[in-house]
Specification:
four-stranded antiparallel β-sheet, Jelly Rolls
Length: 136
């Protein structure tokens, strides 16, 4: 038996013959087989396509002042793409910690959304906010 000592722990290493090692591996495999047998099958996930959608441009431009675009109903998914760097939040006002979405990039939310809050990331810039909304 050899000893290895470190600052945190002491490890003892015992030599093991091949047949003992093989026996332990086979026992572990049998435990794994039993665990697999107990697992229940995962039901198939079926996608449900959206039946309605709109594509529009937010009624107010993106400026230094925060604007709110009300979609008019709660939608299941929304994708927005600003024409300038912008700070965008769904269903809550933007803040200093709101990340910047780069111009012509997109931001999506696949949860219930009604209002989009947005403002320019850089003072003095003005642009538009493209909005795609989807629902059933």
């Amino acid at each position: 038996m050899s000893h290895v000592k470190s600052k945190e722990i002491e490890v003892q290493v015992k030599p093991v013959d091949a047949s003992t090692l093989l026996s332990r591996i086979l026992e572990a495999l049998e435990d794994i087989r039993e665990t697999i047998k107990e697992l229940k099958p995962i039901e198939e996930v079926k996608s449900k396509p959206y039946t309605n959608h709109i594509f529009t441009v937010a009624s107010e431009p993106i400026t230094d002042r925060e604007n709110i675009f009300d979609i008019g109903l709660e939608v299941a998914c929304v994708i927005v793409s600003p024409s300038i760097d912008a700070k965008i939040e769904f269903d809550k006002p933007t803040s200093d910690t709101t990340p910047t979405i780069r111009a012509d990039a997109s931001l999506s939310a696949e949860y219930s959304v009604r209002r989009i809050f947005y403002r320019a990331a850089n003072p003095g810039e003005q642009g538009v906010l493209n909005v795609w909304a989807f629902w059933w």
